[in-house]
Amino acid sequence: MNRLAGKVSFITGGANGIGRCAAALFAQEGSAVVIADIAREAGEEIEREIRAAGGQCMFIETDVTEEESVRQALSAAVKAFGRINVLYNNAGASTRADGPVTMAPADEFWRAIKLNLFGTWLCCRHGIPELVKAGGGSVINTTSVAALIGLRNVDAYTASKGGLVALTRSMAAEFAPDKVRVNAIAPTATMTPRVVDLRKGRTVGSENRNLLGEAQPIDVAMAALYLASDESCRTTGHILAVDSGLTTT
Ligand SMILES: NC(=O)c1ccc[n+]([C@@H]2O[C@H](COP(=O)([O-])OP(=O)(O)OC[C@H]3O[C@@H](n4cnc5c(N)ncnc54)[C@H](O)[C@@H]3O)[C@@H](O)[C@H]2O)c1
Question: Which atom of ligand 1 is nearest to the CA of 189?
Answer without folding.
Answer: 3
